[in-house]
Amino acid sequence: MTLSCGPVFKITIQNCLILGSFVLLSCAQSGKTAKDRKMKSRLIFFMIAFFGYCKIVKSGSKGTYRSSKTINYLCNSLHIPMSEEKSLNFLEEIIEEHLKQGTYKSIVTRFPPEPNGYLHIGHASSICLNFGLTKKFPGYTNLRFDDTNPETEETEYVDSIKEDVRWLGFEWKHERYASDYFGSLYQFAHQLIDKGLAYVDDSSSEEIAALKGTPTEPGKDSPYRNRSVEENRDLFTRMKNGEFPDGSRTLRAKIDMAHINMLMRDPILYRIKHAHHHRTGDEWCVYPMYDFAHGQSDSIEEVTHSICTMEFVPHRELYDWLIQQLEIYPSHQYEFARRNINYTVTSKRKLLQLVNEKYVTGWDDPRMPTISGLRRRGYTPESIRDFCDRIGVAKRDNMVDVGLLEFCVREHLNKIALRRMVVFDPLKVVITNYEQQEEMLLSENNPEDEGAGSREIPFSGEIYIERDDFMENPPKKYFRLAPGQMVRLKSAYIIKCEEVIRDSDGNITELRCTYIPESKSGHDTSGITVKGTLHWVSARHALEAEVRMYDRLFRVEDPADEEGDFKDYLNPDSLQIVNRVYLEPALQEASLGERYQFIRKGYFVLDRESGANSLIFNRTVGLKDSWTKKGG
Ligand code: ATP
Ligand code: MG
Fold first, then answer.
1. Which CATH number does 422-535 carry?
2. CA 374, 377, 382, 388 torsion: positive or negative?
3. Strands, E, within 124-274: which ranges?
4. pTM of the model
5. Which residues lie closer than 8 Å to 233 by C-beta, 6 or more apart?
6. Beta strands in 89-165 (DSSP E)
7. What atom in ligand 1 is closest to the CA of residue 338?
8. Which residues are catalytic?
9. What's the Rg (C-alpha) of the chain?
């Protein structure tokens, strides 16, 4: 893995480190005794480690980024290219061992979203992990919709999830739904009843809760626990046939009300819900609980490695118990830590609130941490996969700095974005000695990519530059435009500011400049060197557009962890609209799939609300990390 900084810089850093090490080691060797030398070497080693650590903390904003990838991150911080070889994560180690031992010839994983919202960046971790494992090892991954809650699930969500997984670059082997298995699950429930391992309970949910006990006290048996197999079979069949109202009865596993794991205290397997299901319609009025659907669906699909997040650790015992009692394919559950990023929320329930209460314009609002929001904002699948790869797989929950996600997208966009000139806050410059009407100048599309070619830009005697690229009384070492000072216009000529024009209130309205005809970029024979280069657009040819500048959705790192309502912590400046910016004409051809770098401004993408006569661009990310500087 390498960073995109230029090779010269990389070599310089490497050389510095090598040189530094030699100097330090030769210092160490200067000790009088072997003990002395050993002590000095240790001291120097710790000094290097300490400075490396400081660098990590400094660059990971507030030091929130902690992971097993510390070495990787250290190398990135110091701009040291790493070798392509990466160590295996703990799941890869387990699978490698399984394949080596012959436990499995190939593996099956699944990504199991509940279709009750759009996917977010946390889900991307799980997708990259599950699909990534079967890219690395022989086997395949299923997409399984965990659709056992009819009230909250919708086809719109199913469609968006499929679109997002594909957009991220993954293809599933089978598209499955827990609802495909409602018939089998119902049969499984009957098998447990027949074995005396499940019973119908007439208690209300409050009564069940009251008898559940606490982590330190055992629960108490329900008065319905010892019903006969026949009675249970009859009642469960009648539950399924719709004879009882919602909430009046449940089917519970008969395990142990004194079990140390509360989830093993006769967990509910089925509840009655007369609700319309997005796929099965009104066919069912009993629906399986997550714990009864998930493991059994894994087993039906012969999933070898069922990977979920850490909150399911206590569920594993029940997962194994059910599979064992039903004597079905022994899938196994493995857990990894949830991945959350700061300055946002990644709970579908909270994201839904933001959508429903119109704090954002929809699930794909470019400020949302959803995959569709990130896509609309201009993120690329490559950058999200890179992010997931860098944060890796851990066993402990942690908060990842959103700066790392921004770093990944900046890295990728630097390689692929077409460079264009756009002026946000125009100041007119009249070039008094330019006698032609106009001319076309050539400019490269992307200096990082020779294959990207070049484009023509019209130049004329009236152009716009950024207002803040001019200063009337500049400090020393100000290399932009000032009275009597010269700058280069990108891909054009060197100009010199001759006169400042003001309106009656004293505001600067225009600059009068002269240009050096011999200084044309690529053919410069003027012999003049200037330090500043400005972007510009020809006033007559410029197009107008709206630009939407996005910032973090929340003003605190972990809104869900603050007192009161998480929505109180929304960042009021998360969207700023610049109504009219001036674009070079090539942007008339801007397309939704293309990414652009507005030179010196940041990375931008066309918004889907854009029309031929009303261009709208979203800012994906700035050129540099400006948030840390703001002290956010
Ligand atoms: P949410 O809190 O967003 O509703 P969820 O777990 O209820 O999350 P699911 O649709 O069930 O959402 O998630 C599908 C898969 O993605 C599950 O295996 C889940 O463990 C995983 N997942 C969800 N959120 C994250 C996250 N933040 N980091 C890693 N994996 C996640
Ligand atoms: Mg879930």
1. 2.40.240.10
2. negative
3. 139-145, 175-177, 198-201, 250-253, 268-272
4. 0.85
5. 190, 193, 194
6. 107-111, 139-145
7. 28
8. 114, 338, 348
9. 32
Q: What single DSSP character describes residue 467?
A: G
Q: What is the pLDDT of residues 355-374, one digit of tens each?
A: 999 999 999 999 999 999 99
Query: What is 92-336's CATH superfamily?
Result: HUPs (3.40.50.620)
pLDDT digit string, tens, across residues 133-153: 999 999 999 999 999 999 888
Judged by its nearest atom, the ligand closest to the C-alpha of residue 109 is: 1
Q: Identify which ligand lies nearest to the alpha carbon of 143.
A: 1
CA nearest neighbour of 192 among 319, 323, 291: 323
Ligand 1, residues at Cβ distance < 6 Å: 112-114, 122-123, 125-126, 146, 308-309, 338-340, 346-348
Which ligand is closest in space to the CA of residue 117?
1
| Ligand 1 centroid distance, CA of 114 (Å) | 8
Question: pLDDT by residue (tens digit) across 472-481?
Answer: 999 999 999 9
Q: Look-up: residue for tokens 């261009």?
A: 615
The ligand 1 atom at the shortest distance from the C-alpha of residue 127 is: 16
Classify strands 418-420 and 595-598 as parallel, antiparallel or unpaired: parallel
Domain ranges of the chain: 2-78, 92-336, 348-418+545-621, 422-535
- Can you tell me which atom of ligand 1 is nearest the CA of 114? 10
Paired sense of beta strands 486-489 and 494-502, if any: antiparallel
Instruction: Name which CATH class applies to 348-418+545-621.
Output: mainly alpha
CB contact at 8 A, 319 and 292: no
Q: How far apart are CA 38 and CA 31, in angstroms?
A: 8
Token pair recorded at residue 489: 């216009």
Whole-number Å distance, alpha carbon 122 to ligand 2 midpoint, is 12
Per DSSP, 97 falls in state H
Query: Do 92-336 and 422-535 fold alike per CATH?
Result: no
